[in-house]
Amino acid sequence: MTEITPARLRDLAGRAEALAAEVRALLDEAATGTPEREQLFVAMHASDWLTRAAEDLQQAAGKLARLRSLPDDACGVPWGVCPEHGATLSSSGNVAICGECGRTWTYDRLGSPCPEPVRWKMTDKAGTELAICDGHALAARQQVEDVTLTSLDQPGQEDAT
Ligand SMILES: [Zn+2]
Ligand SMILES: [Zn+2]
Questions:
Q1: Which of 56, 110, 124, 142 sits 20 to 30 Å CA-CA off 4?
Q2: Same domain, 62 and 97
Q3: Does residue 138 lie in a domain region?
Q4: 96 with 62, same domain?
Q5: Which ligand is nearest to the CA of 97?
Q6: How far apart are CA 7 and CA 65, in angstroms?
Q7: Do 42 and 104 belong together in one domain?
C-alpha cells in the first residue's frame, strides 16, 4: 500500500484545480447571452466546487504535514491552545487567534494536534493520566473537575491552583 503523504494530497489538489480551470475555459467558449450559456450555468458552480475542493485538499495536506512534523515530546492533544492562556483560541480557515493576547497563528491551530512540549502530568477524577503542555494544563484547570497536575520538570511538585 502506498503511504499517505502531503505530496499525494497536493497532487490531487493540483488536479482538482486543473479541472476547475478546464471547466472555466469550456464555459468561456459559450458566448454570454446565448441559450447555451444559460444552460451551462450549473457548470459554473461545478468549477467553483472544484476550486473549493482544491483548497480543502491543500488544507488537508498542510494538516498531515504538521502531524508528521510533530516533535517527539509534543503534547499531541487533538486541539490547540495558546501556550500562555490555554483554551482561548478561535480558528477560522487558516488563521487562529488567542482571545486574550491577540497572538495569531497562520494555520488552523485550534483544529490541529498540539505541538507544544509536554510539561505536566494530568490525572483526572477517574485516575486517567495524560502528559500535556503548559497551555493544556491551564485549560484543564479551567475545564476539568478534580484534576491533579504534576510538574514533569520538577517531579514530585504538585500544582494546587
Ligand atoms: Zn494568548
Ligand atoms: Zn498542549
A1: 110
A2: no
A3: yes
A4: no
A5: 1
A6: 9
A7: no
Ligand 2 midpoint to CA 136 (Å): 5
Give residue 153 CA to ligand 1 midpoint distance, Å.
Answer: 22
- CA 91 to centroid of ligand 1, rounded, Å: 13
**Which ligand sits nearest to residue 71's alpha carbon?**
2
pLDDT tens, 88-143? 999 987 899 999 999 999 988 999 999 999 999 999 999 999 999 999 999 999 98
| pLDDT tens digits for range 24-55 | 999 999 888 888 888 898 999 999 999 999 99
Residue 18 CA to ligand 1 center (angstroms) comes to 40
Do 59 and 108 lie in one domain? The reply is no
Number of domains present in the structure of the chain: 2
